[in-house]
Amino acid sequence: MRFERNRRGDWGESDWNLLFFFGALDFFAVALDLSATKNGNSRWGDSRTAPAMCILKKQ
């Protein structure tokens, strides 16, 4: 994917969609991180956690 500018110098529509997609992805990663912290499955000390381990331990 290329980041192209249109004639006005603004970002194209696809650039904003890409930005929104990665922003949403980051939001869900943080939400999973926080839910894993609440369940006590910590990986990096006590403040950060591993979402994958949280999912694995529930099974």
Give a quick rundown of the structure.
The protein has 59 residues and is mainly α. 58% of the residues lie in helices and 8% in strands.
Please tag this protein with its features.
58% helix; rod-shaped; two-stranded antiparallel sheet; 59 residues; 2 strands; single chain; mainly alpha
Beta-strand proportion: 5-15%
In whole angstroms, the N-to-C terminal distance is 38 Å
Structural class, by secondary structure, is mainly alpha
Q: In angstroms, what is the radius of gyration?
A: 18 Å
- Tell me the helix content: 55-70%
Low-confidence stretches: 44-49
Can you walk through the features of this model?
It is a single chain. The protein has 59 residues and is mainly alpha-helical. The chain is built from two helices and two strands. The chain has a two-stranded antiparallel sheet. Helix 1 packs across helix 2 (51-58).
Topology, element by element:
Layout (H helix, E strand, L loop, with lengths): L12 H26 L3 E3 L3 E2 L1 H8 L1
Antiparallel strand pairs: 1-2
